[in-house]
């Protein structure tokens, strides 16, 4: 049987340090939950919680990855894996899985390689420091790629699709494939609906699509310094088609 999960039923409980959500079907309700600890360690966006309390909190970590939790809860309900009180509690091993891309939407079509406005990377060919340099170079360029699209919603949609392809290309190029999941979590990706909802919450006085687009093409502090190439924390930059250090940054 298929159960429905309404975002309006999602609550973040500070006392129990868990996010609760409800599965509804056939006149029944099943209380489901996942702990803050799991959300913070494996599904957060990596921003500073104190500096950005609106976006960086367990509720949004859940929302950004809702498909993972509801799919797993649905699976456990169907096989009857309940707690003694009849609820569903998701453990780390239940939800921590290698995903091709977090927050992907199968209803939004992929972009064919020949239609991309940039050259991709050779699969399984680069180290994380080099791929990170390429990613940091590519993400801000998305705004240029969509600059000629007049409709704000269509512009945001195309920007989202381009960023999805950039993340996939980066993940596919990793030589150490065991770090694929870590790469996706280090360079997070929100669903369109989650981005727009956050934009309306953060900037109710502005156009949601414009605010969401700015967020999409911006790098978080964690992304800017991810995977340094030296022990002192110096990161590489993508210059003239290759990852390198800036001369004045290398000690």
Write the layout of secondary structure elements.
Layout: E1 4-5, E2 11-13, E3 18-25, E4 28-35, H1 36-42, H2 58-64, H3 66-79, E5 88-90, H4 92-95, H5 128-145, H6 152-172, H7 180-186, H8 192-202, H9 208-216, H10 221-224, E6 237-239, E7 242-244
Parallel strand pairs: 4-5
Antiparallel strand pairs: 1-3, 2-3, 3-4, 6-7
Q: Which stretches are low in confidence, meaning pLDDT under 50 for 5 or more residues running?
A: none
The first-to-last residue Cα distance is 61 Å
What is the count of helical runs? 10
Strand content: 5-15%
Which value, in Å, is the CA radius of gyration? Answer: 20 Å
Coarse structural class: alpha+beta
Main beta-sheet strand count, sense and barrel state? 5 strands, mixed
Average pLDDT for all residues: 86
Helix content: 40-55%
| Shape, principal axes of CA atoms | globular
What's the total count of β strands? 7
What sequence of helices (H) and strands (E) makes up the elements?
EEEEHHHEHHHHHHHEE
Short descriptors:
single chain; 251 residues; alpha+beta
What can you tell me about this protein's structure?
With 251 residues, the protein is an alpha+beta fold. 41% of the residues lie in helices and 12% in strands. The chain contains 10 helices and 7 strands. It has helices spanning 36-42, 58-64, 66-79, 92-95, 128-145, 152-172, 180-186, 192-202, 208-216, 221-224, and strands spanning 4-5, 11-13, 18-25, 28-35, 88-90, 237-239, 242-244. The model has no long low-confidence stretch (mean pLDDT 86).
